[in-house]
Specification:
Oligomer: single chain
Structural class: alpha+beta
Strand order of the largest sheet: 5-4-7-2-1-10-13-12
Number of strands: 28
Length: about 850
């Protein structure tokens, strides 16, 4: 893997030397079916012709290609010796002319890691499905190219496929004599080219738009998935959100969708949520729901559809020069996904989900030792791969929400419109965006950018309330703090809300003021003289990006009456603050769990409820004192069962509590109920135990030793599908046995036979909180193998393994010592590998502080 890296400096040098006029790529994918020929990886033929210019004739450079072998290379009609010019990841190019043509004939490998050309065999019917995934730099696994975002070019793809297959790419395609030829693309980056091929189920629709000047735009729409998922594919809803999004972005961007057709492919074993390939967006097929799910899942899918659609402008039409400015596409798409969800679809409360879920991801990432500014220092491709994180996405989107408040929505959108028109099909840096925003807003963007984009860390805002003798607010101030490691105090536009109980017992806001918080302490003069509040909510309405705290009186109010808050966004913000306080060892885990068990039942937003379930689980597993952990787990299971039985029959709340109960049940009584629901001897009014819920119920039975390999085989026979196989593999690795753990470890660490999806499932099953004693031997083993894993595996698989197997459930102090010893002894290890170990270590140290805080609490149970 290290030999496949590309540094920023190398990319800059190559971009200064070369410009690309076009690619012709011919792929022969007929080898995807049938028996494998020969030893080694299964391969396909890839022939690439690149037309490019060099502004220094006689200079040397290189093209990128990762392939098992190269058959022939010619440069400007001159045959080169493949063995001499190709080293496994690069093709050396010497004595370049002013105008050049490079032809590379290679044997490229199909992937089972989700990188490059991924090949999937459906266990249900034996059909083969292919798709490509490249970001940030895996198109070189499929064809020779210049793999960096600023060397854009038009692409023409030609694909020979097995008989009966359909092939899709970025442009419109047509088949003749078994060869699919696709229309030339606009100038785009290598990482957003795409090929999908196989016997996919395909549904079509169309979008039409007539603009004010009378211009008519028609966009052919398509949606595809494996045949085995066709019965579950609600393409009508996918098309509905797609059309709503296209309308919304046309209304706001004043730049017609520029890439012709709009296909959306839901593909198996996908590493990401989705990828914004122009004209052919790819999604993980888990967005096709095989069983009943809550509206939060539909909202999440809509958000991803709109996120990827926003990329057609932010990222595809206008692309960052290098991965330092990854935020120029991901932060904007993350913001625009929610902005459009609220503005165009049925999901009008999507900002609540954003405040509760997306920001939680950002807050965690921004407090790790690996935190970085939104505009990051990306030295190479390994850095780039790790920067698809909560800062680049969710913090960046939060900061853009703050920017909209700072410059005004109209100025922000006008800036976007000018940005698209000025830089269409080009590449940009931070200054290019700031300049148009200065034009449209009249505000100096430099200071804002320095505070928000070029510094790391999250600020904390805490209210201070002084009351007069008459019981009114004498002074209310907001205190801002920053971590010692990142001391920047930023300007915040915040709303401060005051809440009191109504005569009916509801907790409602009666006063609100917006204020610019700047510096360590800001007085909110507008609230002086107000009636004394029972709750002060800083950052009411979620205008800025910060961690908020509560004064003592507000915290007591929430402990006794959080469920009385009538505003769903205010509740979500309070829940988020309580969770951050738990993670920061300011609130004992048992107190957080107690609040969840008393008030989660009154949560009307189903996405927030499901987030509370996840947080409560995490509180018990990671932040509860070890001596109370079993009691806490029991309380969660009892509470989940109680709420499951009390929930409305057939309601989303019933389904959410059923899944939570399955994740928390450990007692024999709880496990017996799950077994009864599985075999039909027990029923709960309104609860439909579909196949996905069956697997959810089966896992805790497996963990508890009540379902064996035979039971799992029987369940797979019921659900002999790709999804069923992943569930079975996860459950197999979750069985409570030393031999099982050893086998799972060997399958992931010592072998590369598992696909990315099955390796992920095995890691998930391996790590069971109730099996800590079985995991203890793997602390030492982990630190002994991770450097070899990093060197031998693709970066995606290496990341999944190093992160997924970090010994977070073992003895924390022993693991901390082992992590420190490894870091001290491996100062020269790959920076990206060190980052993952540092992050795991930091999470564990944080958990230990939380456990110490919880141990000091009065035992409530």
């Amino acid at each position: 893997m290290p030999g496949e890296n590309l540094s920023r400096d190398e990319a800059r040098e190559r971009a200064a030397l070369l410009s690309v006029d076009g690619y012709d790529v011919s792929l022969d994918l007929r080898s995807a079916v049938g028996d494998q020929v020969g030893d080694g990886p299964r391969t396909f033929r890839s022939v690439t012709t690149i037309r490019f210019r060099c502004n220094e004739p006689g200079a040397t450079s290189f093209a990128d290609l990762i392939a098992p072998s190269v058959t022939a290379v010619s440069l400007n009609g001159r045959d080169l010796d493949p063995g001499a010019v190709f080293d496994g990841s690069r093709i050396a190019l010497e004595d370049l002319a002013a105008d050049n043509e490079l032809v590379v004939d290679a044997q490229c490998a199909y992937s089972r890691t989700g990188e490059g050309m991924h090949r999937f065999v459906d266990p249900e019917d034996g059909e083969v499905y292919l798709y490509t995934q490249y970001e940030p730099a895996d198109s070189r696994r499929v064809f020779a190219n210049f793999e960096q975002p600023d060397l854009k070019a038009p692409f023409r793809f030609e694909v020979r496929a097995p008989q009966g297959w359909v092939v899709w790419s970025n442009g419109v395609g047509a088949e003749s004599d078994g060869v699919w030829r696709f229309a030339e693309t606009k100038p785009i980056s290598t990482y957003i080219t795409c090929v999908v091929a196989g016997p996919y189920h395909y549904v079509t629709d169309s979008y039409e738009r007539v603009f004010e000047d009378g211009t008519r735009l028609e966009i052919p729409l398509g949606a595809l998935c494996r045949k085995g998922l066709a019965a579950h594919f609600d393409s009508d809803d996918v098309f509905l959100v797609t059309k709503q999004g296209l309308d919304f972005f046309h209304d706001h961007f004043d730049y017609p969708y520029p890439f012709g057709k709009y296909d959306q492919a839901f593909v198996p074993e996908y590493n990401l949520g989705a990828m914004e390939n122009p004209g052919l967006v790819t999604f993980r097929e888990e967005f096709i729901f095989r069983g009943k799910v809550t509206q939060a899942s539909y909202e999440g899918r809509a958000n991803v559809i709109l996120h990827e659609m926003a990329h057609m402008w932010f990222g595809d039409l206008v692309t960052m020069v290098w991965w330092d400015d990854l935020w120029l596409k991901e932060s904007f798409a993350d913001f625009m996904g929610t902005f459009a969800n609220v503005g165009a679809t049925r999901f009008k409360d999507a900002w609540i989900t954003f405040a509760n879920r997306r920001k939680a991801w950002a807050y965690r990432a921004d407090q790790l030792p690996s935190t970085h500014p939104i505009t990051a220092d990306i030295r190479d491709l390994q850095d780039a791969k790790l920067n698809f994180d909560g800062i680049t996405y969710a913090k960046g989107a939060s900061v853009l929400k703050q920017l909209v408040a700072y410059v005004g929505q109209d100025a922000f959108l006008e800036g976007a419109r000018r940005y698209f028109k000025r830089h269409a099909y080009g590449n940009t840096r931070l200054d290019d965006l700031l300049s148009v925003l200065e034009e449209t807003s009249g505000r100096d963007m430099g200071a804002w950018a320095r505070s928000w984009l070029q510094t790391a860390g999250v600020n904390s805002l805490t209210p201070q309330v002084l009351l007069s003798a008459e019981g009114r607010v004498d002074e209310l101030a907001v205190v801002q703090e920053a971590a010692e490691s990142h001391p920047e105090l930023r300007p915040h536009r915040v709303a401060v809300g005051l809440y009191r109980r109504t005569p009916e017992g509801a907790l409602e806001r009666y006063a609100r003021a917006e204020v610019d918080v700047d510096g360590p302490r800001t007085v909110v003069a507008e609230l002086a003289g107000a009636e004394a509040p029972e709750l002060v909510l800083v950052n009411d309405d979620d205008l800025t990006y910060c961690k908020t705290r509560f004064d003592a009186g507000s915290l007591e109010t929430l402990k006794s009456g959080l469920g009385d808050l009538t505003d769903p966004l205010a509740r979500a913000l309070c829940w988020s603050t309580l969770w951050n306080m738990t993670r920061d060892a300011l609130l004992p885990a048992r107190e957080f769990i107690d609040i969840v068990l008393r008030f989660a039942r009154r949560e009307s937003d189903i996405g927030v409820l499901q987030m509370l379930h996840a947080w409560a689980e995490s509180a018990v597993v990671h932040y509860a004192a070890p001596e109370w952990r079993e009691r806490g787990a029991g309380l969660l299971a009892e509470g989940a069962e109680r709420e499951l039985l009390a929930a409305g029959p057939g309601s989303e709340q019933q389904l959410a509590w059923a899944r939570f109960f399955a994740r928390t049940a450990e007692s024999r009584t709880g496990l017996d109920l799950l077994q009864g629901l599985l075999d039909g001897t027990a029923t709960i009014d309104g609860l439909e135990v579909d196949q996905e819920l069956r697997w959810a119920f089966l896992q805790p039975l497996t963990v508890g030793g009540l379902a064996d390999e035979k039971a799992l085989a029987a369940e797979l026979a019921r659900d002999d599908t790709a999804s069923g196989k992943r569930h079975q593999v996860r459950c197999l690795a979750a069985r409570p046995s030393e031999a099982v753990k050893a086998q799972a470890w060997a399958q992931v660490v010592e072998s590369d036979a598992l696909s990315n999806a099955l390796a992920e499932a095995t890691i998930s099953g391996f790590n069971q909180p109730s099996q800590r004693h079985l995991l203890e031997p793997y602390t030492e083993k982990y630190f002994a193998v991770i450097e070899r894993v990093w060197q031998d595996r693709s970066i995606q698989i290496a990341m999944n393994t190093v992160s997924g197997l970090f010994p977070s459930l073992q003895d924390p102090r022993r693991t901390l010592d082992a992590a420190d010893a490894w870091l001290a002894a491996h100062e020269d290890a790959a920076p990206a590998l060190r980052r993952l170990v540092l992050e795991g270590r930091d999470d564990l140290a944080r958990a230990l502080r939380g456990q110490e805080c919880d141990a000091q609490a009065v035992n409530h149970g």
